[in-house]
Amino acid sequence: MAFFWTGRFLPLFITQFLGAMNDTQLKNALVMLVTYRIAAASGGNAQILATLAAGLFILPFFLFSATAGQLADKYDRAALTRIIKVVEICIMAVACFGFVAQSVWLLLVALFGMGVHSTFFGPIKYALLPQHLADDELLPGNATIEAGTFLAILLGTILGGLLILQAHGIVLISSSLLAVAVVGYVASRRIPAAAGSEPGLRINPNFWAETWRIMGYARADKQIYLCILGISWFWLVGGTLLAEFAPFVRDVLHAGPAVVTLLLTVFSVGIGAGSYLCNRLLRGRIQSTYVPLAALAISVFGVDLYFASRFFGPAGYVLAAWQFLALPRAWRVLADLFFMAVAGGVYIVPLYAIMQHRSAAAHRARVIAANNVMNAIFMVVAAILTMVLLALHCTIPQVFLFVALANLAVAVYICRLLPGDLLRALAQRVAGGG
Q: Residues 6 or more apart from 220 whose CB is under 8 A from it?
């Protein structure tokens, strides 16, 4: 991990960490403001506005991923990052006006802008890693990025909800958003130059045609395409869990908002622990050895979460965090979520590393953009699937059980695709060959 402190990695890590934090901080502050103040005062439907906010954040991934991939393959990626961070400062200025005016529409415009920001930064971030890191640094580099992203999401969620509801919440959240964006820009200026891999590329303005083209790049290599499908499936499973944390705590665990933060903290720490565990298991090798076992573990703990979350007492009584933690069965719920997240980290990190390593340098950023499009599709499917299951009167634990069982089928399929890697690694461990 010596590379962490180098100019090749640390400025990029700080830049992406603060960007992910600001995305979540803005999103959660908007949802909290709408839920507890604006909607209550105006009679608006907070749930609809929250759903609209989530949709507006995802929409740019469909519209602009192809263009983002082309730009990241054509131009210097460090220079593009600095431009994107300047745009982020402007977006946060719009958000500040929205908070001061308590204008939902200005805030939604800002949130859409941050979706655009993430769409353009994603291909740059993942294309920079193999450009600046050696092959044996790529896996730990991805592990650090994934761990940092989830911790940034956790910090942004906590800050967004905490600051906006204070007495001077508008000033606090506006100052935080602008400060984080400015520090992110300063960090981006330290990212070393990274020339585009195809400077002569002509940008195709037809994003529909180009989206189809970049999906073709991804499908050209079966292993890359399987990695993209596997990554997207992770976001379907993880997105379903994260989206239902709040109603799960309120309606199933009968606990207060502090327990939502507790569950998110446990999940984020688990992803970080799993990311680093993956690096230790693989010892820097870029291979999918433990992906099948990790997928199976996600299902095992997901099924147990269903059984652990039953019979949490009568509705109408809201448990404080300390009361929740005093229940032995609460620790079983936390353990299930933690080990699901650990397995998720072991699962996701090598897939990102393989996708980056195997992609041809000339269109690596466009392959990553194709991954972003597929991720967005799977996340939308997750939201629709959850709404359908809830409309059929399934409980939230039953939704979790359905996803865990569906993931089991995917895990079995992955085991059929990758038996050689797994058996070789187990044989090496038994023989003591590492």
A: none
Of the two residues 139 and 32, the one the predictor is more confident about is 139
H/E segment holding residue 168: none
pLDDT digits (tens, 9 = 90+) for 53-91: 777 888 999 899 999 999 999 999 999 999 999 999 999
Q: Is the pLDDT of residue 190 over 90?
A: yes
Report the chain's C-alpha Rg in angstroms.
21
Tell me the C-alpha to C-alpha distance, in Å, between residue 321 and each of 226, 316, 326. Answer: 41, 16, 9
Residue 394 to residue 407: CA distance in whole angstroms = 18
- Reported pTM: 0.86
Strand partners, 319: 255
For residues 298 and 347, the answer to whether their CB atoms sit within 8 Å is: yes
Token pair, residue 384, equals 């629709």
CB of 143 closer than 8 Å to CB of 345: yes
Which domains are seen in the chain, by residue range? 1-187 (1.20.1250.20), 220-434 (1.20.1250.20)
Nearest 5°: the CA angle 333, 160, 339 is 20
- Helix residue ranges per DSSP H, 254-360: 257-282, 291-308, 321-325, 328-358
Which has the closest alpha carbon to 233: 60, 413, 67, 59?
Answer: 413
Q: Find residue 255's DSSP bridge partners.
A: 319
CA distance 250 to 261: 12
For residues 72-105, one letter each, b for 16 or more C-beta atoms within 10 angstroms of the residue's C-beta and e for the rest, the string is bbbbbbbbbbeebbebbeebbebbbebbeeeebe
Share of the chain above pLDDT 70, in %: 90
Residue 348 tokens read as 């996701």
CA geometry: angle 54, 56, 58, nearest 5 deg? 70
Contact 333, 265 (CB under 8 A): no
Is 211:66 a contact under the CB 8 Å cutoff?
yes
Tokens of 35: 């839920």
